[in-house]
Design a protein that fits this description.
By secondary structure, the protein is of the alpha/beta class. The protein has 15 helices and 13 strands. Helix 3 packs parallel to helix 10 and helix 11 runs parallel beside helix 15. The radius of gyration is 23 Å and the shape is globular. Bound molecules: pyridoxal-5'-phosphate.
């Protein structure tokens, strides 16, 4: 998947490297002076580029915002003595869990690793089957393979492109252990329908909410909808820790298992042993090093208070797009159901099948519009083809994947940016 590089929020000249520090930025006790640090950072930050007569700036499909306060929080963490698992990990876990309505948050070093932790915690084993929607990022399915299970691809609903509960029901077998419900583009899947299928059979639901922090289903936040809900803090997502993820759950046993699994399968971490004055530890299962460092949690903590505002800004941009496309027959935005709110990680439209989607994509790119496609069905990738997944498995996902287009969507987009995208797309019809 092509992902844009981290961008600062102004179109800017490259920043001067932050080398050394202002002469008075460190007090005699070795603690950085916040005001001096801020002044040094402001001087080092990129200045807005002068307006040129040349073509307007490239509009990527997604873009992160990094503030001076974010940078300061990271520098404070860097100089705090805690670089890996320190106090900011637990603080970030608590704050993020509270934000998405869950009792527990487990910080993990990517959304993919969070999905892997979730698979282990709910007991996915070799020989099990895990139902995954065909239209998602490969990681949603790959995580099942990490545990020796087989992804079974379910089709998607035509108007939302969310996992179709009827297709899930048709794919249940005695070996089904879990369902991965992907909140595609930012809208929660139909969790009540999925739970009706899963609960009587003891099947667990892993919510892949990587697209949907801040969305709701029947008024419930996305951290509460699966047995475990997984989030990503990759820079193209709603908020970032550079790379990073979180698994949210109301189940303390699942949370404890994931905390162990992200730490080699060891039952304590360095910090808790230091606090207890102990040296011994036990490795109870084969885990991984999936820890999210304190420095990155500092960035997450600094970003989190802005998440709600960013989701709101995305919803406003989506409303402007919806309005602009309302009278255009060849462009159909995805539907958001009345019982949910959409956090709009992506703004996806379906183009009329008479149009050549790839020609429209090229037209937009030529105009500096960072259109994209999310996704081709996972099992079309050669890795999956080599494992014997036949084309034609999920006809709706396959058809949709030929006609969908992702348009730029990020909180700093202006009305002018939206109009520019709409005009460029109209010009391609
Ligand atoms: C639906 C979905 N699931 C999982 C992931 C994996 O997240 P990460 O990139 O943090 O590993 C992504 C990220 O692109 C995603 O879009």
């Amino acid at each position: 998947m092509a992902k844009p590089a981290l961008a600062l929020h102004s179109s800017a000249k490259p920043a001067a490297p932050i080398t050394g520090r202002a002469p008075d930025s460190k007090g005699s006790d070795g603690v950085l002076d916040a005001r001096a640090l801020q002044a040094a950072l402001a001087a080092a930050l990129p200045q807005p580029a002068p307006q040129a007569d040349s073509a307007p700036a490239f509009l990527p499909y997604g873009k992160q915002e990094i503030s001076l306060a974010d940078i300061q929080a990271v520098i404070e963490a860097l100089t705090s003595g805690w670089l890996t698992t320190g106090p900011r990990v637990g603080e970030f876990e608590k704050a993020f869990a509270a934000h998405c309505g869950a009792k527990e948050g487990v910080a993990i070093n990517s959304g993919t690793a969070a999905l892997h932790c979730a698979m282990r915690a709910v007991g996915v084993h070799t020989g099990d089957e895990v139902i995954v929607p065909a239209l998602t990022f490969a990681a949603s399915a790959n995580a099942a393979i990490y545990e020796g299970a087989t992804p079974v691809f379910a089709d998607v609903e035509p108007d939302t492109l969310l996992i179709d509960p009827a297709s899930v029901a048709a794919r249940i077998t005695p070996r089904t252990r879990a369902i991965v419900a992907v909140d595609y583009a930012g809208q929660p899947a139909d969790y009540d329908a999925l739970r009706e299928i899963a609960r009587p059979r003891g099947i667990r639901i892993i919510a892949d909410a990587c697209h949907a922090p801040g969305a709701t289903y029947h008024g419930r936040a996305t951290g509460t909808l699966g047995d475990i809900s997984c989030f990503s803090f990759h820079p193209v997502k709603h908020m970032t820790t550079c790379e990073g993820g979180m698994a949210a759950t109301d189940d303390e046993t699942l949370a404890a298992h994931m905390r162990r699994f992200r730490n080699h399968g060891i039952d304590s971490d360095h910090r808790s042993r230091e606090a207890a004055g102990a040296h011994a530890y036990d490795m109870t299962e084969l885990g991984y090093n999936y820890r999210l460092p304190d420095v990155q949690c500092a960035l997450g903590l600094a970003q989190l208070p802005r998440l709600g505002g960013w989701v709101h800004a995305r919803q406003k941009i989506a409303a402007a797009y919806d309005k602009a496309f309302a009278g255009i027959e060849q462009v159909t935005p995805l539907k958001t159901r009345n019982d949910r709110t959409n956090a709009y990680h992506l703004y996806v439209v379906k183009l009329d099948p008479s149009l050549d989607r790839d020609a429209v994509f090229r037209h937009l790119r030529a105009q500096g519009i960072g259109a994209n496609v999310h996704y081709a069905p996972v099992y079309w990738h050669s890795y999956y083809q080599a494992r014997g997944y036949a084309k034609g498995l999920c006809p709706m996902a396959e058809r949709a994947s030929r006609h969908i287009l992702t348009l730029p969507m990020f909180p700093a987009m202006t009305e002018t940016d939206v109009a520019r995208v709409v005009d460029a797309l109209k010009g391609a019809l």
